[in-house]
Design goal:
The strands form 2 sheets. Strands 1, 2, 3, 4, 9, 10, 11 and 12 form an 8-stranded antiparallel β-sheet that branches. This protein has a 4-stranded antiparallel β-sheet with strand order 7-6-5-8, with no helix packed on it. Helix content is about 25%, strand content about 25%. The protein is elongated, with a radius of gyration of 29 Å. By secondary structure, it is α+β, with helices and mostly antiparallel strands. The protein is built from 1 helix and 12 strands, in the order H-E-E-E-E-E-E-E-E-E-E-E-E. A hairpin with a 2-residue loop joins strand 6 and strand 7.
């Protein structure tokens, strides 16, 4: 074989090798991008499923604090490391309802006794805080006599008590601990009212 032919073959082999390297780099790049996208999708789903999601306020039951169609952030992990506190605004998912959340304010904690005295909400013999919108209650429902909560039960009210289906009524009743899916922490929309929820 002549030197010229040998050089030509080496040149061709070298070219093929470089093409293979380039092709291999492209495949590696595509695989890396795919892995990044997959990881982002998995993390995004986990973030949504276990930590935060958006929910919408439906109906007038929380007027005074929240309005119909407000877009809110639900922190699903709020109660993984701490207990539900009195006056928290929570999302409740009743047994049998797949996606729908009731949004209410926690008034009674496990073991509490809830009553109404002279139209004013009373917990364990003490009037609720003055700045709580649902302090005054016209429709007593089950609260025509004191309601004692069990070990895993919560009593919830809508801030707009005149237009709220809540723990005062038999068809809603006390809320079980495992029905509370998290705490409403922030309003996204409408923009002019966006901010932390208290």
């Amino acid at each position: 074989m002549s030197k010229k032919n040998k050089n030509s073959i080496e040149y061709l082999l070298k070219g093929e090798l470089e093409e293979k390297k380039k092709s291999s780099k492209k495949v590696r790049k595509i695989l890396n991008y795919s892995l990044v996208i997959l990881a982002a999708a998995v993390l995004g789903y986990a973030f949504y499923a276990f930590f935060f999601c958006t929910v919408f306020m439906t109906g007038p039951s929380m007027e005074g604090t929240l309005q119909h169609n407000d877009e809110l952030i639900l922190c699903k992990c709020s109660y993984m490391f701490s207990d539900v506190e009195r006056y928290d605004i929570v999302a409740i998912q009743r047994f049998g309802s797949n996606e729908y959340y009731d949004i209410k304010r926690v008034i009674g904690l496990p073991g509490d006794t809830i009553s109404i005295v002279g139209g004013i909400l009373v917990v364990n013999g003490q009037q609720v805080d003055d700045d709580i919108p649902c302090k005054y209650v016209d429709q007593m429902g089950r609260l025509n006599r004191p309601v004692k909560l069990g070990d895993d039960e919560y009593f919830v009210l809508g801030d707009n008590t005149e237009h709220s289906e809540d723990s005062r009524f038999v068809n809603f009743g006390n809320v079980q601990a495992n029905e509370i899916k998290g705490k409403i922490i922030y309003r996204i929309l409408p923009k002019e009212k966006s901010g932390k929820i208290k």
